[in-house]
Amino acid sequence: MRVLLAGATGYIGQAVLRELAEHGHDIVALVRPGRAVSDDVTGPIAVIEVEITPHADWTLDLPETDAVISCLASRSGAPDDARHVEFEANRSLLEYAERVDAQHFVLLSAICVQIPRLAFQREKLRFEALLEASKVPATIVRATAFFRSLVGQFERVRAGKPFLLFSSGNTTACKPISDRDLAAFIVQKLTAPPEGTQVLPIGGPGPALTPQEQGRLLCETVGQPFQTTSLPPEMFDWIRWLISPLALFSRRIRDRVEFLRIAKFYATESMLCWDEALQRYDAQGTPEFGEDTLAGFYAKLHAGEVSMPERGEHSLF
Ligand SMILES: NC(=O)c1ccc[n+]([C@@H]2O[C@H](COP(=O)([O-])OP(=O)(O)OC[C@H]3O[C@@H](n4cnc5c(N)ncnc54)[C@H](OP(=O)(O)O)[C@@H]3O)[C@@H](O)[C@H]2O)c1
User: Which run of H or of E encompasses 198?
Assistant: First the structure.
């Protein structure tokens, strides 16, 4: 299958590129001007450097493909960037998919859009609605937390410092998924387009882990005693209220305010399916996929068998 992959330089995009190549797909990878895909992936890959704009003309020279995968994501989550990437760039990709009559559009989304409070979540949902309305068959993959998001305290814990928790560290949970397993899930779904649009929440192999459990696992792995420091998630609100007046005059501060909202969200919400009837997160009901466990990943990091994933702008610690 000839596949257009957008976001091929991202954390999940790189894994999807590798998985597509391993499955023998013919790949057209879109990257921003000056960017390149990992040089350790081999196969029929055409890399096209392009600025994805809201205008359709940038797609005119693209070769026709059978399917489109979007792993695009705003790197900052700032409102303007989120609109530009999560909505407008994806809309351009969809217009391309409609023009070439693509058999399938696969969108990497996030499970957190179930409770949309943040700019980037609302932009993702706006685009998901376009996909629903399109004639192109679509799969929306709403993933839970990536391993990358759960390694930020690795060095501090290894150095003997306490693991930082919000509140008790027991009020949220997720089913961490590796980049490799998520990529395998995406590529598996690619070749089986649905009739219309399907939304697939997905986590890694269970059980769901709370931050307490993640911290305990990390300390055990690096051979440190399990000690914690608890922080109030409200601290993000306090800082936000303090700097909010300045946001009237500065876009940088407005973006910082949004970052604080994002941080509060992840400190207080689980990355699991939300049960609307029971008004709670449902660990049991959150589908699982793959074999890579967070414990195994921590062990490989500690042994130096894998390198620390590049941390995004969303990183807190
Ligand atoms: N972190 C988590 O735990 C988690 C959990 C569930 C779901 N998700 C979702 O998973 C998705 C992807 O995450 P990720 O970690 O793979 O993202 P990422 O590493 O930040 O990669 C983002 C990709 O989008 C590209 N991109 C960003 N801005 C662009 C622009 N203006 N024009 C063209 N390309 C642009 C980046 O290109 P450059 O390399 O050139 O910047 C990169 O290829 C996001 O939708 C996220 O919300 C994340």
Answer: strand 197-202
